[in-house]
């Protein structure tokens, strides 16, 4: 599964283990991740691709425009797909 902008991923390692993030950008093997709450779009987290599990869900670009929209979309996904 490819890592593309907007794909939701779950962290497999680190202190944010099992948290859901959206891919903001891809830089080789590094992903820039944001969730709108603890990690805003202006300060995304860098994480290696091997440390996240991709989901089948890709968010629309409109949901990646603000932290509030992104946070609400991730909360809705987490409610429908519990950890």
Walk me through the structure.
The chain has 83 residues and is of the alpha+beta class. The protein has one helix spanning 67-80; strands at residues 7-11, 20-27, 30-34, 45-48, 52-58. Helices cover 17% and strands 35% of the residues. Strands 4-3-2-1-5 form a 5-stranded antiparallel sheet, covered by helices on one side. A hairpin with an 8-residue loop joins strand 1 (7-11) and strand 2 (20-27).
Quick synopsis:
This protein has 83 residues and is α+β, with helices and mostly antiparallel strands. Helices cover 17% and strands 35% of the residues.
Write the layout of secondary structure elements.
Layout: E1 7-11, E2 20-27, E3 30-34, E4 45-48, E5 52-58, H1 67-80
Antiparallel strand pairs: 1-2, 1-5, 2-3, 3-4
């Amino acid at each position: 599964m490819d890592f593309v902008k907007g794909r939701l991923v779950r962290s497999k390692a680190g202190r944010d283990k099992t948290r859901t993030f959206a891919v903001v950008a891809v830089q080789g093997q590094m992903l820039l991740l944001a969730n709108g709450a603890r990690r805003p779009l202006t300060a995304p987290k860098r994480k290696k691709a091997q440390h996240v599990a991709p989901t089948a869900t890709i968010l629309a670009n409109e949901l990646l425009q603000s932290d509030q929209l992104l946070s609400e979309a991730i909360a809705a996904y987490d409610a429908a797909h519990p950890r």
